[in-house]
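Thread title: Can someone regenerate the structure for this chain?

I was given the following input by a collaborator and told the matching structure tokens would be attached. They weren't. Posting the sequence so someone can regenerate them.
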Amino acid sequence: MSEDTEKGAGEPKPLTQVTRQALKTHSGEFELDSITYINFHDRGISDLGCIGECTNLQHLNVSMNDISRLAPLSTLKHLVTLDISANRITQLDALKDADSLHTLNAAGNLISSIDKLACLAKLEHFSNLRLQDKVHQLFNPVCHGASYKKRLLSLMPRLKVLDGEVLSGKGSEVFRICSEIDAALQGTPTSGPIPEMSKPQPWFASDSLRLKDSKAQDAAIDDVTKKFKDVLVDCQRLQEEGQRALDQAKSSSTQHGIEHLKNLDLSM
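Best answer:
Regenerated them for you:
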């Protein structure tokens, strides 16, 4: 049984502080600089400890812990995705040199102003940021400002996705339409007196079924259909690329462990 698991419980042990042994046990790697993926979600961590020694780490999830300082992450130059949601973080300065960082989920922390995010603005590949998650009710104080979104996009014009909203590229128009529909639905009163409803009206005018310009309508429908199919194709491609990357990472990790065990057998 893994030392990283409570006996008979099947649940990971609380860590409090990240140690070399915990990193090796969790990843299955014998050297810290061989680790590329770590998931320490909800482990009671308050101190990231020696995690900075995983110098080739690319994907890190330390969400739902008790972390307040990110200083140990300052050496992780190869980080691509980072999930630090649901912690007690106030500063992101440790990420200022994370040049490979693409995606950051920092929802549910204590980031109080746009100025605290300036360190991310210079990261060339950074394009996906989440500071609030309305589904799980995770927010930062900065999100409550009236001009939050406008000021943030002014600071980081390269952002393509903010709080789950696609800002540019294929899919942004579909997301905008869905957001408008969702906002309209959420605007329906749920308490208080029921407003007086207007008398029922026909769904359409009697002449609305007459096609004034069938060719133009057909062309418009074809264009919308093509764009929607393009979005679906892109989604499928991204899913396949992600799966291939995950399979590659698992295969590489397994092979590395096997080769190391062989070397140990030969040396004994």
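The mean pLDDT is 80.
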